[in-house]
Amino acid sequence: MEQAKFVQNRIQSRAYRLVKPHEVIETVLEKQMQAWDVVVEPTLGSVCHADLRYFSGQRRAEALEKKLPMALIHEGIGIVKSSGTPTVKTGQRVVIVPNIQGYMLDGTDPMNCCESCRSGKGVNYCTRGRFLGSGTDGIAQSRLVFPAASAIPIPDEVPDEIAVLAELSSVSYQALHHVADSLKSAQVVVFGDGPVGYLAAAMLHHVYGVSQDRLTVFGAVPEKLAQFEFATRKLVQDYDFSKGERYDVALECTGGKFSESAINQAIEVLNPGGHLILMGVTEDRVPINTRDVLEKGITMRGSSRSSIHDFIPVLEAMRDVQCQETLRKLLPDERTQIQSAQDFAHVMEFAESNRGWKKILLNFKW
User: At what angle do helices 195-206 and 321-328 cross, to 10 degrees?
Assistant: First the structure.
């Protein structure tokens, strides 16, 4: 498209910025709104383990030095306060897409961006893009200025507390769309009974139509595993992987110190020609059984982000009451009110020391 026109409009934003692990301050950021941008006031956010890795200092020292100070949070929704385009209207509820490609920041098109965007390899791999809360200021601020295309209107039937789960759900959708054709008949297994595993399994069931008899979840905590009512459930510590069922598609959603065992168990139970999708994040290198990967011809693919197109089918699925009931199991009984940097720091401290099963929702009061 033609280069968009520049608009002289400065926007000030109150931001809760992490300046070093465990230390959050309030500061004022000033941004330039351009013709293709919107200004959104974040209303509801959700804490991700990625946010906690920054807050607690678990990221590598060089990453922290490069990226801080920075406002955290990349899972969130908000209200449009100003719009430079008729496609997004002032007052609309929108989901915030945190993965913003370079050509969108410029107000142009993919052909004017990096090789990945020009070639169609995937906008998730744009070398000129920005990701909110990871290298650029995230949702923990009063006014976000970003391209209007990254503000996805929320359907009226979808309540705020469900819509705020769209980002993490869209990551699962994106990871799975590469094997969408095989999901029509494949036996699928998910490793991990945390929020990532739960939402991946929920997308498999509600978006891709994988029924309970074709969907198995391995978990380590009986209370967590019991929540996966739409799947066949198995405790990983009681299962004999050398003699059990075999699967066509496996998702590793554990991350951290359990990545090694989950990845290798997935390799063991996959059929020849199977697909292994890695979604769990760890800061450590993980040894894997390459012999079986080679002998079985297993395809491995990593996925941790999503783009605009992945949000649309997710929000459509969220219109369904049954899908909403499934997702509500991840929601806390209460939202945490955030009115200051101190409030934000306190809730992050709580999240770090109480890594429970349910998500922590941040109700921003600006």
Answer: 170
Question: What DSSP string runs through 100-117?
Answer: E-HHHHHTS-GGGS-HHH
Alpha carbons 164 and 364: distance in angstroms, whole number = 13
Same fold, 10-98+133-165+330-364 and 170-302: no
Domain ranges for the chain? 10-98+133-165+330-364, 170-302
Q: What does the alpha-carbon distance between residue 143 and residue 140 come to, in Å, rounded to a whole number?
A: 9
| Third-level CATH fold of 10-98+133-165+330-364 | Quinone Oxidoreductase; Chain A, domain 1 (3.90.180)
- Whether this model's pTM surpasses 0.85: yes
Tokens coding 333: 């009984």
Give the C-alpha separation, 175 to 188, whole Å.
13
Place of tokens 């026109």: 5
CB 96 within 8 A of CB 76: yes
The predicted-structure confidence for 222-264, as pLDDT tens digits, reads as follows: 999 999 999 999 999 989 888 888 999 999 999 888 889 999 9
User: Is 170-302 a CATH 3.40.190.10 domain?
Assistant: no
